[in-house]
Every structure is written in C-alpha cells, then in structure tokens.
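Lab channel / #folding
Pinned by the channel admin:
"Please post every new chain as: sequence first, then the structure tokens as a reply. Keep commentary short and put observations after the output so the thread stays searchable."

First post following the new format, from NK:
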Amino acid sequence: MRQTHAKSLTWFTVIGIIAATVHYVIAVGLEWSQLLPPTQANIIGFLSAFPVSYFGHSKLSFSSQSATHKQALPRFLAIAVAGFIANQTLVIGTLRFTQMPFWLVLGFVMVIIAVSTYLLSRYWAFKGVL
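Reply from TO:
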C-alpha cells in the first residue's frame, strides 16, 4: 500500500508538472504576446492542459485505482473545474489587489491548487465504487 501511494504521488508530480507547464506556457504566452487578457489566457491554458492531466493521471498516477473511465472522467473533470474556478478567483483577486505580474501570480496559484487536486483525485476521482 505504501509503495503504491509513493508511486502514485511520484507520477502525480511528474504528470502535474507536465500539465502545469502546458497550462502555464500557453497562458503566459498568450498574455505576454497580448493576444488575450490574463483571465482569458488562463482559460485557454487550462483547457489545453486538461487532456494531458486526465490521461496522464488515469494511465500512470492512479493506474492501480479501480474506477472505470466512465466513473473517473466526470469526477476528475469536476475536480479540475473546481480547481480552475479557485485558480481563476485567486488570480483575479491577486491581480486586482496587488502589482504582482501575471506570470508570478499564476505560478504561485497553480502550486496551491495542485495539492487539493491530488487529494481529491486519489481519494475520489479514480477510486472505484465501493
């Protein structure tokens, strides 16, 4: 059990870094190039990273879990959307009330959200029906 948890956490970290990099590079790139404002760039970054995150986590991070794709996808989507709403709320609030640049705010917020996403994914999204 402990080895499975360590493997799950390791893969979650690797996949999370890859998905976060996709999200971050796309969002910051769109904002930096002035193609989109930060809030819209953040949405595009999230949507681009979601498939990387879901398929990576389902195939590697939580492969030992018993949930089917039919069970896991809607649960993981719910977690991801809730995490994104929290992300967007924190980004908007921080940008509104501080002079911090978008690239720094987004990086900080993404780390905070990752912890809750791991816990919810492990203990709910990819866990089979009891």
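NK: Residues 82 and 117 are 9 Å apart (CA to CA).
TO: also worth noting, The chain has four helices and no strands.
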